[in-house]
Amino acid sequence: MNQDYIKPDNWSIIEEGFDRERVKSSESLFSIGNGAMGQRANFEENYSAETFQGSYIAGIYYPDKTKVGWWKNGYPKYFAKVLNAPNWIGINVEINGEDFDLNNCTQVSNFRRELNMKEGWYQRSFEATLKNGTEIAVDIKRFLSLDLDEVGVIYYEITPLNKDAKIIYKPYIDAGVTNEDANWEEKFWEPLDVKKSGNEAFVTAQTFKTHFKVTTFMQNTIWSRGEKQNMSPISVDTKADKIVFHYDAIVGKGEKSAIQKIGGYTVSLNHTDTVSAAEKVIQAALAKGYKQLLQDQIDAWAKIWEMSDITIEGDVKAQQGIRFNIFQLNQTYLGKDSRLNIGPKGFTGEKYGGSTYWDTEAYCIPFYMATKDQQVARNLLTYRYNQLDKAIENAKDNLGFKNGAALYPMVTMNGEECHNEWEITHEEIHRNGAIAFAIYNYHRFTGDYSYIPEKGLEVLIGIARFWHQRASFSKNKNQYMILGVTGPNEYENNINNNFYTNYIAKWCIDYATAQIQKVSLEYPSDHKRIIEKVKLSDAELQEWNKVAGNMYFPRSEEMGIYLQQDGFLDKDLVRVKDLDRSQRPINQKWSWDRVLRSPYIKQADVLQCFYFFEDHFSKEELERNFDFYESFTVHESSLSPCVHSIQAALLDKMDMAYAFYLRTSRLDLDDYNKEVEEGCHITSMAGTWMSIVEGFGGMRVKNDALHFSPKIPKEWGGYSFKINFRNQILKIAVDHKETKFTLEGTHELTVYVNGKAVLVQPKN
């Protein structure tokens, strides 16, 4: 753990005390979003010290030209940036002739931030003394509406404490923004138009290259002593990409003055005329009013929590951690739009670029399947189907593959590869397997097979073709190998026969073959349509099966473990416990050469295979591999601790399972990897949910039934969660004495607890 300033609380993230050194970290942790847009917790007023400004709009991106020391064939031409969107939250303030800036105040006291996860709002309050001697109390509340998801609201209140004050509010919208991570320090936005009408203003800009058009809007209302003031701006400053309103307020000592700002974005993804759409959105928000908008927000979050909440008794930090993760997942993606996906930083930062990694299929889909309607997970699968042609193009143009072989991108916005590190782009090909596994996982959990004949089988065929062509035959070993890859453990590049990659390649071919046969028998018209479309022959299937049936898996018979890759045991096998703590994290302390030569594992690799295919191996095999590889794992990927927590629970290593749970649930809150200021780890947060549901709860789906093997950390009094299993809501409550089930549905449900059948009747 590297930071400990977030106050333990069951439902809120709370910071007390103003510290310039943690402003950027808090900007990440207190971020807000509503699935359509989001923003870091930047101050509304000017702040002259170090800050990382960030507002983001779902689906809006820019193809930033790749910047490398030298070009290699097959490099993606660009790295897709999650764009820093125009700033609508800005409210600069002048008090008695001095610009208000917390960095320049002579004193700041009673500083407090709260992110209320139960109700979906962010609040900041403090008292400050300006250089001119004016003392003020400030209270600001901000939220992004879930119901009107193009709208955000700020209520910014100031109370002079020691003297009367002339306050000038300067709300603005500004499209002259840049990205922190721009390769070439260029601007991504082209201003098109600035418009104002009364207390409303609109700045329209479009992205260069991709030509997304966005209208950023604001509407301002001044309040005094709780009364709405019929006030227009006294002046307006206008530039090509920015507009600033000025409002004067004479405020007596002890009196409250406030500006209410409605702002947000309307985008060309959803509207032909973005300005008129913005005008309508403003009117809809004004018609509701601040109090109703806030109440609607509280009600919308109550509905989300009713299904997705996990309760933990007796451990506030554990409770706070899981709710923070669930909250951020729901802020990032709500499943309304199949064009969207779940970026690794969500709306909290720009690092990694792209909106889609294999994280979605491997970690996020289980969360969304179980806590929402199955259509949400199906939308995520459809997203990949819609990009199949691009995946085929990627394999053909960049790797020279043929015949419809598909390699899905490591990072993408629109189906094109936009990750520009060679060892990741062309070697971390295991991502193909996660996409196939998600199709299997969806059918296994929901029971909905229709996706496969409608869309999924084409994806499976493209992926199987890729693995068939990517494998090479070794005369020396008389087996098929997959050479020159990077596994989930990215601290090993360009290695041969990564166990996880080889195993999932074989599984993909076997699974695709089985589904082709099933569709031919049960959906003959779909089978005929697909086979004719992809031109698949029996001869090709036979070639696939030769590869799958004779795949090489590196193994140490002496140790009884699978090897992460050829030659792993040739390394200097110094365990993590014997590594000097001053050398951690190694990705920030060591050269890349030293990292690659070490035995240290960034994230679960062999164990990722055991997680996906648990029923393919014995518990004894898992334990041998777990004990060996865990000792070399530094967990410097956010995706690692959750898998270890699940498997430690399965192996009855409960102290270890609990420690890994805390690490995954509080990865950002406690900044384990010393990087939270860059943004939160959104996609791995779904792994935190899995750590409880699949780890401590032991939930599995076997033979169309739910199985549980509940366990409970000694630190907890009990825990509970809900699962939407095939349109019936099942609540599971576990304590140290028993496991209880409550069913919301129309018919009884048989579940299995430690292998024993339990019949659960609907509570109604």
UniProtKB/TrEMBL annotation:
Q: Does the keyword Transport apply?
A: no
Q: Known Pfam families for this protein?
A: Glyco_hydro_65C (PF03633), Glyco_hydro_65m (PF03632), Glyco_hydro_65N (PF03636)
- Binding positions (substrate): 358-359, 602-603
Q: Where is the Glycoside hydrolase family 65 central catalytic domain?
A: 323-690
> Matching InterPro entries, A to Z?
6-hairpin_glycosidase_sf, 6hp_glycosidase-like_sf, Gal_mutarotase_sf_dom, GH65_N, Glyco_hydro_65_C, Glyco_hydro_65_M, Glyco_hydro_65_N, Malt_Pase/Glycosyl_Hdrlase
Where does the Glycoside hydrolase family 65 N-terminal domain start and stop, copy by copy? 14-268
Q: Where is the active site?
A: 490 (proton donor)
Q: Which family does it belong to?
A: Belongs to the glycosyl hydrolase 65 family.
Q: Does the keyword Amino-acid biosynthesis apply?
A: no
Q: Which Gene Ontology BP annotations are present?
A: carbohydrate metabolic process
Name the Gene3D superfamilies on file. Answer: 1.50.10.10, Glycoside hydrolase, family 65, N-terminal domain, Maltose phosphorylase, domain 3
Q: Could you tell me which residue ranges the Glycoside hydrolase family 65 C-terminal domain spans?
A: 699-759
Swiss-Prot/TrEMBL keywords: Hydrolase
Instruction: Enumerate the SUPFAM superfamilies for this protein.
Output: Galactose mutarotase-like (SSF74650), Six-hairpin glycosidases (SSF48208)
Recorded GO molecular functions are: carbohydrate binding; glycosyltransferase activity; hydrolase activity, hydrolyzing O-glycosyl compounds
- Would you tell me the protein name for this molecule? Family 65 glycosyl hydrolase
